[in-house]
Structures are given as structure tokens and as C-alpha cells.
Amino acid sequence: MLILCDLHPFGLVIFPSSPKSATATLSFFSLFWRRKAKFKDKVPAVLLVLSFSLLTLGEIMSRSGELALKRLIISYSPTLQSSRNTRQFLATHLPAFQAKYPSVHISIRPRQWPERGITGIFRDGSERFYNTAGLSTMGMFIRCHKLANECNDYDLPFSAAHLHFQRKTVQGAWNPWLWMAERPYSRKQPAAWNRRLTEDEWSYYVDKFSSQMKLENEAVQHEVAKHTELPHAYSQDAAAKWKRYVVPKLQTDMEHNLASFKADFKKGVKPAAVSMGAYRLFSAPNVTELGQDAVTALRGREIERMDSWWLQRKQQLKPPK
Fold first, then answer.
1. Over the stretch 179-220, which tens digit does the pLDDT of each residue have?
2. Is 38 helix (H, G, I), strand (E, B) or coil?
3. 127-154: per-residue pLDDT in tens?
4. 235 near 286, Cβ under 8 Å?
């Protein structure tokens, strides 16, 4: 866009507001300079002054008291947690912005699912959007002032830079660390999964599997032993309590026992067989061996069955010759 000002009676001062305008200015005056012979008798002199200054359209409009920003649209949610900063901005900084720029029409749009942004609409109909997700109230205030102090005259280049794609490769892009890998080496064919195993391979895999089964069996036996076998300290405690409380109360008078035996013989009462309770009175029970013979027999039978099964399985795993 060109701003034309008649500052000289015989000349023209041009202030281009953007690089595009400067290019258009040079093109226009190069064309005018070629055809100046036709206007030689009418225009005595033409003064061309090209000034690439920082004088923008917003500054010129601010001199005349008119802003390029005409409307400010703020979208927010009255309930969502993501719009809490926007609600705080509406209550704190927006009144100050409205007081400073009364010509800007502010449109507040409460929405259930807002865009979470600030949109500025300028005099030429263009729009500019600032995302306010995660911004503080001061950050929103700064962006509103930025919209008010500009005229949205950004140069948007038209090119195909966004259509460039990185070349896709199978092995990946080259990098300097690949210097260590770029060396000749002999490729080795991977072994087929359905190949015929050799005798050494069979022995290796069978021994490996048998050692794994042995470890699993030991782990199972260890877990069973923790719940079935009582510690040796329990047996010592039971033996000490038996000697302390039971042994002093046992019948140790031989004459009394012999008198009762003679009385029973005179009555013709035959002596009964010795019961298990009588034996238990004269022996300290070992709690670690109560029923242990049955457990040992069952475990031995189970181990024997597992050994026979594993030997049969090893024969089945052997390849046919």
C-alpha cells in the first residue's frame, strides 16, 4: 500500500509501508521513467524519494485518531476449568482496555465449548487470532494491546515450502555415527525354525529343559516344606515341656504296680495288651516326625513317577534316525 503526500511543488514523496509496496513502487517508477519523454514539456522535474522507513499504516491512523482494529471477539466458557484465566481477564484487565480504546467494539461470546482465543477484526476486513490456552491474564492483556497497535499488514509469502516432505528411507537417514557401521561384513543366513536338529543340539536343549524342570521342582518342594515341616526348635521346646511337666507325674513306684498286678492275677483278670497311650506316656513325641513316614513315602512315589515320565519324554524328544 502506498501513502502519497504532496510535500514539494515539483515532486512526490512515496512512503512504502511494506516490502511488497516497495517492489510495486520501483516497478511503477521504472515504467514512468521510460515514458517520461512524453511528459517532458508538461512536467519540468520529478523528484523521487524512496523512504523505507518504519512508518506503518497503524502509526498514520494513530496520528489521525483512528485505529485499524475495529472489533475484538473473546470466546470463553462460564463453567469449564480451562477458561478460568479468561474469566479473570474479563473481570480485571478488560475494563481497562475498553477505557483506553473506546472505539474498539468488544464482543464477548460465552460458549459451552469455546475456541479459547482472542480474535481481532480490522478495518480492511482481515482477522488475526491469538490462542489463549494456558495464558495468564496479563498475557491476554498484552495480546489485546498488540492487536490494537497493529493493522494486520503482515506479508504472507506464497510458496510451496509447506509441500516439501522428507525423503523416507528404509534404513533411516544417515548420521555421523554410521561411520562405525559402514564396514564390510559377511552376511550369515539365519537358521530355519523347522530345520533338523543335530545330536548336540538335541542334547543341549534337552539338558537345558531338564535343568529348568529341576529348578522348578526344587522351588515347589521348598514352598511345600515351608508349610509342612516344623522347625527343629519346636521339637526341642516340646521335649523340654514334657520333661518339666509330665515326667514328674508318671508312676515310678514299682511295689505299688506289683501289688495291683498280683490283685488282678488273684481275680483271674488277664493283663490287657499295652495300649498306645501307655507307650506315649514314656516317650517324648517328636513333632517333626509325626506322620513324616507317610509324607516321605508319598513324595518318593511322586518323584519316582516324575522321573519315569521324564525319561520316557526324553526318548520321545529324540529325533528318529
1. 777 677 777 888 888 888 889 988 999 999 999 999 999 999
2. helix
3. 999 999 999 999 999 999 999 999 988 8
4. yes
C-alpha cell at 69: 482494529
DSSP string, 47-94: EEEE---S--HHHHHHHTT--SEEEEEEEE-SS-GGGHHHHHHHHHTH
Q: Which helix (H) or strand (E) holds 16?
A: strand 11-16
Burial 147-160 (b: 16+ CB within 10 A, else e): bbebbbbeeeeeee
Mean pLDDT per 10-residue interval, the chain, length 321 residues: 38 41 45 47 39 42 74 94 94 96 95 92 94 94 95 78 68 77 75 88 90 92 78 76 78 70 86 69 63 80 90 78 60
Q: Where are the domains of the chain?
A: 2-55, 65-148, 200-317
**pTM score:** 0.34
Q: What is the torsional sign of CA 204, 205, 207, 212?
A: positive
> Per the CATH hierarchy, to which homologous superfamily does domain 65-148 belong?
Glutaredoxin (3.40.30.10)
The answer to whether 45 and 11 are in contact (CB under 8 A) is yes
86 vs 131: CA distance, rounded Å: 11
- The amino acid that residue 6 corresponds to is D
